[in-house]
Design goal:
Blueprint (H helix, E strand, L loop, with lengths): L2 H21 L3 H13 L3 H25 L5 H24 L2 H22 L3
Helix pairs in contact: 1-2, 2-3
Amino acid sequence: MPATPLLTCLGIGVLSGVVAALCGVGGGVVMVPAFVTLLGLEQKTAVATSLAIIIPTALMATTQNARHGLVDWRVVGVTALSASIFAYFGSGWMRTLGNETLTRIFGGILLVFGLRMLWLGKA
């Protein structure tokens, strides 16, 4: 990997790690758009790469948050199970959609939830 993409990946990692720790997001909000615009990855590859990176990121943040009693483990079990099952099937669906369609879906979701958070002041 040439120096520029290595430094770009490092910068994306720093930003997404901080945003993930502060807001509970990072993959979709930071990494996917950065991978597409800065590294030239296709939307599908950006999504899949981001999901792979979320695993160690989530483990590190969860360790810290659990240490401070911030994780509601009653919510984790059922939500993690249902999210995992539907993520498995959703990844199959993702492969059937075009990159442009995925980009529009992604942008629309960010816009709707972002506006809702700004307007209502809560998630």
